[in-house]
Amino acid sequence: MFNKMKILLMMDQHAVHERIRYENLLLRYKAQNGGELLSTNLREPLAIKLPTEACNLLLRNKILLKKYGVNLGSLKENTLLIRTVPQCLITNSNHCNNKKILSKIYGLLNDILTKRNTTNHANMIPLTVHNAIASEACHGAIKFGDELTLDQCLYLVKLLKNTKFPNRCAHGRPTVVPVMELSELERRDTKKCGKKLNFAFLKSRHWM
């Protein structure tokens, strides 16, 4: 019921579960104080070469980098040594794949430095981190066509209501779409059921 209007909603079970998993994973990958991203030690520190200006900029922002799970030091001119990275960037498939890890590290460093002067940057999630967690949330979510019991559906709805952004999955797809106004149907005479539903009104209420 919304402003005394009954609405029949259609829910995308994959998108719903992905949103739930994304927010749970995000909490799991953060330290207990809710600030820093949990980091993991690389089996072998990785050396990255960057222009001198970029190296100096990163070294001056070591505290900020640590907040996002990155611990680095200077190896030699134009070369930095990466010792730790966020846990969410390491999976079983790429733990030994330095090429994949390096690609993510470069992306993460660029994200952090690009957003460091942005207002409220402390609460922002770097795009590289978001993409990694969103991918994990998606791959482990209920699939299209998976059969669910009524109790399982109700439980998903309950969990979705407790998320911060229940209207979209981690990749931006809608989790819920309005199908029709039941209150409108109740008001109509059954002989006039051909009347179009007021979807413009629904959109104006940000359901879509």
TrEMBL record:
InterPro entries: MutL/Mlh/Pms-like, MutL_C, MutL_C_dimsub, MutL_C_regsub, MutL_C_sf. One of its GO terms (molecular function) is ATP hydrolysis activity. SMART domains: MutL_C (SM00853). GO terms for cellular component: mismatch repair complex. One of its GO terms (biological process) is mismatch repair. It comes from the Eukaryota. Pfam families: MutL_C. Residues 1-148 form the MutL C-terminal dimerisation domain. Signal peptide: none annotated. This is MutL C-terminal dimerisation domain-containing protein. It comes from Ooceraea biroi (Clonal raider ant).
